[in-house]
Protein: NTP transferase domain-containing protein
Organism: Parerythrobacter jejuensis
Amino acid sequence: MVETHPGWRKALLQRSSATIGDAIAALDRSGLQIVLAADADGVLEGTITDGDIRRGLLRGDTLESSIDGIIQRSPMVAPSDLPEATVRQLMSANKIRQMPIIDDSGVLVGLYIPDMMGAAQERPNLMVIMAGGKGTRLRPHTQNCPKPLLEVSGKPMLEHILENARASGITNFVVSVHYLGHMIEEYFGDGSKWGVSIDYVREETPLGTGGSLSLLQERPRAPFLVCNGDVISSVNFAEVVDYHNLHRAVATMAVRSHEMRNEFGVVLTDGVEITGFEEKPVVKSYVNAGIYVIDPSALDLLETNAYCDMPTLFGRIRDRQERTVVFPMHEDWLDVGRPDDLARADQTITG
């Protein structure tokens, strides 16, 4: 009999009443990267993965939307009496990482995830962390301290980014420094304290996120991550890289859904004619989350020591008729730009 993961019930939802927000909560609660949707009797009705949720959000679904629009209703399952070796073979052949286990009545009795409890597989992908900004909006906190070294829940913001990336299997880093950069280098050194390798590039003048990449001493051999040094998030960086590779993009930008409510009733017109009314409409859009995956070929579009921001680099890639895509985030995320964001960042870290 297959030995199932001890925490599989945390991934369980009752399909009839569950929303996308409930599915995200189940993903966060279990950490198993899958949601198991069942009826009131425990019969499996489908599964939901992180990718299903992201596709729904891109389509315009909200956290209040039913999971019915994103659920996979015919997932591969295994009977409880199937030998573990056979289950592993099925999973390998079909390239799946989780297998729901059911009894003869279709009732869920577990979830099989081989090697789930092992450490994250080490990735070949480099991460470049942008840590050179002056943080003027955070004065006086940044008067004598670079913004990435400001503490959140007892440790610098940059350390949270580093540890989250390390947990995702990222072990090679380049940190781009400028303002009070020596303090960052003194704190993190070569990264050995965290079990990683850290190199540094030093901007003489601010070059923008894209321009800083022109200073890389060695050209990465695989798509590499870029992250702003003031972003607090629980996103799995390895999943962002996998998403980038899946979509065969040259550049991927992580984005967050943002809503703005108009405080007035809106009058719709056609010339002088009134065609309708909208009472305090909500405008939804995506905002740049400050996390990217870039193919090394994009570095050819940069001039050494020349200013270039990321939107400009993405524009150059599109002008070359190459693919740029968004990675819609549902994970906790905060861009720490103002003093009150520091307190919010504490809440984000502590949950």
